[in-house]
Each structure stands twice: as structure tokens, then as C-alpha cells.
Amino acid sequence: MSQLSTRHLLGIKDITKEDIQLIFETADNFKEVLNRPIKKVPSLRDITIANIFFENSTRTRLSFELAEKRLSADVINFSSSNSSVKKGETLIDTVNNILSMKVDMVVMRHSSPGAPYFLSRNISANIVNAGDGTHEHPTQALLDAFSIREKLGDVAGKKVAIIGDILHSRVALSNIFCLQKLGAEVMVCGPITLIPKYISSLGVKVEYDVQKALEWCDVANVLRIQLERQQIKYFPSLREYSLYFGVNKKMLDRLDKEIVIMHPGPINRGVELNSDVADSEHSIILQQVENGVAVRMAVLYLLAGAR
Amino acid sequence: MAILLQSLRLVDAEYVHPPKNYIYTGSEVVLVENEFEGKIDQTIDCSKYYASKGWVDLRCFTGEPGEEYKESMDSLGELLKSSGFSKVVLMPNTHPAIQTRNEIQFLKSKSKSWVTDLVINAAATKDCEGENFTDILDLNQEGIMVFGDGINPISNPDRLMKILQYLQKFNGILFDQSFEPLLALYGQMHEGEVSTRIGMKGIPNLAEDVAVHRNIEILRYSGGRLHIQTVSSKAAVERIRQAKKEGLNISADVSLFQLLFSDEDLVTFDTNFKVNPPFRGNEDRKALIKGLKDGTIDAIVSNHQAQDFDAKHMEFDLAHSGMIGLQVFLPGMVKLADELGWPLLISKITDGPEKVLGIHKPGLEQLTIFDPNERWVYDKKSNLSNSANHPWFNGELKGKVKFVINKNNFFKVQ
């Protein structure tokens, strides 16, 4: 198989295990390209990609832009902060503008769950979801799983604990779908108010004690506290969160094994993750960033092939 | 004028009766036991049709005044007639809200040519905001017996209690879609496995359960008549069942579409499925059906809420709530007929809602005649609403209203 089963990447739940494996194999090749002196390939020449970000983003947007440029695509960028978006108008207007500009692919981040689905029903371009509210962030999950595979050899059979604000995290949801498709066991851990009540229906274990989660897992993916998505109070203070749900070096020292620490970034240092962990030999956070470019190149390349 | 309705199957709360001949005399419909001795002006072959006493919808919204482009009183009148309803309770959530004699008189004048009888649910609080009372006694002078804030629950317990007390002066009814807004804050759909899977903020059943429980306790204290609208959760059904057993003056309805759709329908983020209360899970649906069967739930409503294209054609969490429900009401019942049976369905849109309104009487002064098997395409051409916010739009449906008798007139539905 050399083609994806879909022409959009809207969510991990919509793609197959074979799709994920194809993306990984393609990303392996692109990672090799990225380590050459000349890092650019002509694969997407004459393809125009619009990066449309309705939510603030630094690393995801840069990662996509770099991936697109490495593939020789023509790139246009559009950013709009949520506060300036009058209900619905901007997305509809954007849809119409994209239609007029004959853009081939759209990479979109939006605060509304399902917004890329809405877009995919209304335009003919390929859509890549770069994060839609509390729904999915598929390329982050792909690069996370790719990084686990790179570090541990395989994802199947591994135990991955996702720790932190699960309720507001699109990374958590995409990771759960992706890791399960690849045969990993998944646990979520955090304050009970930040864990969806029905999360176990997705086949994940639930733990409220971070130390116990660390003892269980091979990989701990620590999530950022999504203060910008918390419309109401979920825990008393950042201090208390950091004391009872943050991951620090002492906790890792208590383990009788080595575990891998991941974080999708940006890190709230001293809140969910202490610097002595983030910058330690356990951490593969910077490898995640590096792999992000290769994985996104693979996704864009394969979707362009599905046109 | 005498019209012979030949071989018509009458449906009531008990049976689908064998085909018989009926005569519409110009004022009522009577069974022809033997030969009809008078002159027959017209004969209609009704061998494919069912009929029942006139249908009553306890919860319907208009856009007029304020949002006529969504649904005007003219379009609604035509829609109600063609959908088989001979009586409708209109909710107060217009702009301005239905809260003074002016708006009442306006609606009455706009509905003068309607075939359907209009019952107005006037706002219980100003602008339906749940705080300051409307001039309830003054509105009663206009004949208003039903009060409530429509899409907004009266969530302040003190206000609810005082309204229940105040209405007792004229035996008025408080209609309330009971849910606790603070437990539904930012919610977009039913909280459950599906909302978890698609990362959508959920509205827990708890929001309804807590409010229904509280409102029942307030009713127990204050007395009066309380009608809970669009019940959607299993726990709320059980609360209402218990309250009825204890003899409290409480009744309830459910939206027809709550019985037809579930939270699973939202996985594609289709905004047509965004409604309030949200479409719930299978356990809730089973409880609602049990509640209909044992009399806990008195009525089935259309909960017709028209939304224009722009209000729905957007991101899910920004889209407006609501689904139109009149023209598709009979096709919806057809889909449920095998499971629930026609007598139960018909009783919940005839006797049931009549009893809620305190206007129940036997006889066939109003009649709705329908073909449960006729297929038709629900599209721009056939749509009578100003809006099209229904997932069945552009699909083929089964079940068509053929004739409506009301106000001493016989109407053929086109």
C-alpha cells in the first residue's frame, strides 16, 4: 500500500493502522532527508498550501511551514486571534477565499471541535487538522507515536501514561486513538475534574495518582495545563497543581526503571513538568520537535498523492 | 356540506379501528352506522388513510416578531395546517418576547386566518431572563393560561416558587424546560461516550435531573401546576413518575426527535443535530419510551425551532440550537409506529396534551386524516418553513397529512 485511505487528515480516529504505518515509513525517509546537507526535495512543487491558524500557535505552525518548504510547496499563512473572530463569519469567509485562491491543501487550527470537518464539507482542497479545540491534534499524536517507536523500537505492547489536563486536551484524544491503533496500552492521569467522566469508555485506564501512573508506564506524556481553554475553575491553584500533579526528578528517582518523558510543548516549567525532568536524559521532548517536521512532511506528501 | 369519508381507519388511544364510513357534516365527523340519508356532496376514498382527533403540539416556536426570516406567523400557520395540527402552544422566545398584551394581540391578529387554534405561552419573566415577573394577571385578562420562559429554564428557585403560587389565582400552568444552566455551561451535546470521543463539552443528564428534582420539591411546597417540557433523561422520567404517584399536579412532554435521534448522530459535527435538550443516549431513550407507555410522559411535541442557513452553517459550538419539527412530524411518527404503535403515538398528540391544557373532551370536532405510507421528497420545493434545519432535508420521507378538519372547515393539504 502506498496511499492513504483518506484525502484529509481530520482526526486519528478516521484513519487506519495501515495509514499510520505508511506515514511512519514515509517519515523515516524524510527524516533521513532532513539530515542531509540539502534538506529540500521537490515533491510538492506547484502545490499551494494555506496555513490557517485561528488560534495562537508557534511550534505547530513553524513545524508545518518548515515541512511544506522542505517539500518545495508554495506556502501562504493566515493567522487570526480568536478574539477578533466574530461568530462563524471568519471561517465561512475563509472558506470562500480559499475556494477563490485555488489552494490545494489547507492546514487549519481552530478553537471549535469539528471545524475541519465543516471545512472539508465545503471545499475541495485536502485538509490537515492542526488542532480543533478539544477534539483532535492528529499530527501531534503521529509525531508522539513516531518518537516512541524511534526511542523504544515499537509502540505495540508499550504502556503510555498521559498525564495532566485530559479534559481540554486534543493531544490526549489523538494520542489515545493513535497509540491504541498501534497496540499500546494507555492510561490517563490527572485531577479528577480534568478527566472526562466517560474517558474509560475509550478503553483507557484511569489513575489519579501521578506517582502510580509513573510506576505503571514505559512512557509518560505530560500535557500542558490548558488555561486558555478552561472557561471555569477546575482546580484551586497552579501551586497546588504543581505540588500534586506535576512531574519532578524525585518522582522519577523513586522508580525502579527508566521511563521516557514526553511533552507536546510549550511547557509550563514548574507547573506540570520541572526543568530537572524536562531537560534530563529521560526526556525526548526535542526529538519530538524534530520528528514533527518529518511526520508532517510525510502527511502532506501522502495527502498530495491522494488528490 | 356533507363529505363521505369512505373506509377510513380511525385511531384513538386504544385501537386502530377497522375501516368504516364517516360523514363530515360541516361541523363534526360522525360514524355512518347504516345508510346516510342526507345528500352527499363529495365522497373521498380513504381506504389508504388513518385519522384521529385533531393533533395538539405543546411546544412550537415562531420567529415573529423579530426573526421572521426564520419563521413568520404566515409560514408557521401554513406549516401547522399541513402538518396536521389543529392546536399549537406557541413559545414566548421572540424579539421582543411575548410578554405584554401588545405581543399577545399581535400574535392573535397574525393567526386570525390560521386553521390551527393558537394557545400562547406567555413569558413568565421579563425577556425570559428568569428574574422579574411579567404582568401575569394582566396577561391572563387576554386569555393566557400558560406561562413559562420557553427555551430558558426558570432556574432561580425563588422565582419558580412564586410563579407557581401566583398562577394559582386562575389555575394557570407553568411550562418549564427544567435544567440547571450552571451544570450545562458551555455544553454542546449530551455528555457521554460520544462527547468524549469527539472532544465536545457535554451537558450531563445531571443538569436535568437536579432541576427536575428541585422543581418537584418546590411544587410540593407551593402547590400549583407544573408541566416539564422536553424531558430527555432517565433520572428525570423517574422523578416525574414518582411525583405523579404522590399526587402532585405535574405533567411532562418529550420531543418526538428525542425518540428518533441520539448522541451518536453528532459524530459528523452536523449542526442540524445541535438541539436543547441534547439528543441523549440509548438508556435515556428506553426510559422515555417507558415513560410514554406508563403515562409518566403525557405528550409528544415537535419542539419546532426554525434556524436560518447562516445560524447553522458554521462551527458546531457557534451554531444555534434547534431543529424544525412540524412538516417532518408525521414521518417521524411513522418511523416509530412499529415500535410504539399508532394508538400510543396518537394519544400523546391528542388526549395527552389536551389534558395538560385542561381542554380534554371526546368527539371529533377536529380531525386529522393522514396516509402513513405515502412517500414524498422533503426539499426546497415541498418545504413550507422559512428554514430547512433538519437532517432529513433533501431526503425521501414516508407519511403525509391529507386533510385537516377544524373550525368547521375541511382543508385539503396540498
Walk me through what this model shows.
The complex is a heterodimer of chains A (307) and B (414). Chain A has 307 residues and is α/β, with parallel strands linked by helices. Helix content of chain A is 40%, strand content 15%. Chain A contains 11 helices and 9 strands. Chain A has helices at residues 17-34, 59-70, 89-101, 115-122, 138-152, 170-181, 210-216, 238-245, 249-253, 275-278, 285-305, and strands at residues 48-53, 74-79, 105-110, 126-132, 159-163, 185-189, 205-207, 219-222, 260-262. In chain A, strands 7-6-5-8-9 form a 5-stranded parallel β-sheet, sandwiched between helices. In chain A, strand 5 (159-163), helix 6 (170-181) and strand 6 form a beta-alpha-beta unit. In chain A, helix 1 packs across helix 11 (285-305) and helix 5 (138-152) crosses helix 11. Chain A starts with 16 loop residues before the first helix and ends with a helix. The mean pLDDT of chain A is 93. Chain B is an alpha/beta fold. Chain B has 2 domains: 3-50 and 367-412, Urease, subunit C, domain 1; 53-357, Metal-dependent hydrolases (TIM Barrel), CATH 3.20.20. Chain B has helices spanning 73-82, 101-110, 136-140, 157-166, 193-197, 205-222, 234-245, 282-293, 309-312, 329-340, 342-347, 351-357; strands at residues 3-10, 20-24, 29-31, 42-45, 50-53, 55-60, 85-90, 117-122, 146-147, 173-176, 189-190, 202-203, 226-228, 250-255, 299-301, 367-378, 395-406, 409-412. Chain B is globular. Chain A binds chain B through residues 13, 87-88, 91-92, 110, 112-115, 117-118, 132-136, 170, 173, 196-199, 201-202, 231-232, and chain B through 185-186, 188, 191-193, 195-201, 204, 268-269, 310, 313-319.
Strand segment tally of chain A: 9
Which residues of chain B form runs of ≥5 with pLDDT under 50?
none
In angstroms, what is the radius of gyration of chain B? 21 Å
Strand content of chain A is 5-15%
Q: What is the makeup of the main sheet of chain B?
A: 8 strands, mixed
**CATH H-tier superfamily of the largest domain in chain B:** Metal-dependent hydrolases
- What is the CATH domain class of the largest domain in chain A? Alpha Beta
**Main β-sheet, spatial strand arrangement of chain A:** 7-6-5-8-9
CATH A-level architecture of the largest domain in chain B: Alpha-Beta Barrel
Q: Could you spell the SSE succession of chain B in H and E letters?
A: EEEEEEHEHEHEHEEHEHEHEHEHHHHEEE
Quaternary state of the chains: heterodimer
The run of helices and strands of chain A is: HEHEHEHEHEHEEHEHHEHH
CATH superfamily membership of the largest domain in chain A: Aspartate/ornithine carbamoyltransferase
Most strands sheet of chain A: 5 strands, parallel
| Straight-line N-to-C gap of chain B | 21 Å
* Unreliably modeled segments of chain A: none
Number of domains of chain B: 2
Q: What is the highest CATH level, the class of the largest domain in chain B?
A: Alpha Beta
Q: How does the overall form of chain B come out from the CA principal axes?
A: globular
**Most extensive chain-chain interface:** A-B, 27 and 24 residues
Just name the CATH architecture of the largest domain in chain A.
Answer: 3-Layer(aba) Sandwich
